[in-house]
Amino acid sequence: MTDIFRGWYVTDAEAPVPTLRTDLTLDDLHEGDVVVDVACSTVNYKDGLAMKGLGRIIRSFPSVPGIDLAGTVVDSASERFEPGDQVVLNGFGVGESHSGGLAECARVKADWLVPLPEAFTPLEAMAIGTAGYTAMLSLLQIEREGVAGGADVLVTGAGGGVGSIAIALLAEAGFRPIAVSGRAELEPYLRELGAVDVVPRETLTETSKAPLGKAQWPAAIDTVGSTVLANLLKTMAYEGVVCACGLAGGADLPTTVMPFILRGVRLIGVESVYQPMAQRELAWRRLAELLPNERLAEITRVVPLGEVPAIADAILKGQVRGRTVIDVKA
Predict the structure, then answer these.
(1) Whole-prediction pTM value?
(2) Cα 277 from Cα 111, distance rounded (Å)
């Protein structure tokens, strides 16, 4: 790592769209007790908003966007890490209230870092990223709620980052993932990941005044929210479990209490940003156990740092399949 490095950088709230700088130094970053030579980052839906100056994602200026990073420690004032350690970081406000991962260098708090599992390279860790980490948290919650192995689990937004990895994880964990997608051309891809069936998105977007529909699904992972989640709740089986972890379709929830009081449906929010370290380490251990490296390669493309705006455009338009890793050194 050199004293001067490249990265996407936003200076103030009046001009919130980041620009690619080639003259950044540590003085341009927020404070922290560990300096990481970043190998890879990624672009999540939240990063897409940040790169377009939307959603007030970045809340501290000036700053580097990017809620994920993986790389090697080059300097540490913490007893937890020393130079040469490989680490991964998801959340804790990085890329929002603290300089993030879309630069060749990051300075962060040691308490935010997870040792990179030996099963993964930094590139593979970012192929997982917050999306895969969130999918794993959802699977852990489904298991915690006692959903039996072999049960059908519906996954909405199945072609996206969270959805793709959720399907692969569910299949490896012994469940029967059912993919929901509005893109018919993705069916072979979703079945290759492990989906036993693919349901058209229209089945969950049609409006209906009926408070309940046919009870079908023992469990579900929803990345969409809004009408899709409302219709999903109507069709859950008795005491079905829904893990809500996204809002690509909107933050509203036009529903009634009927699924909850007549069928005992359990709606559980999955939060990834401020999970305690024990839960983070558990999630990464299970990811290492369940997610074969070759499966990660199937759902991942790698692009250089300069292509982040194009990826941001595509992810906001719902045109991204699987995961995109940013090679910050390219």
Answers:
(1) 0.93
(2) 8
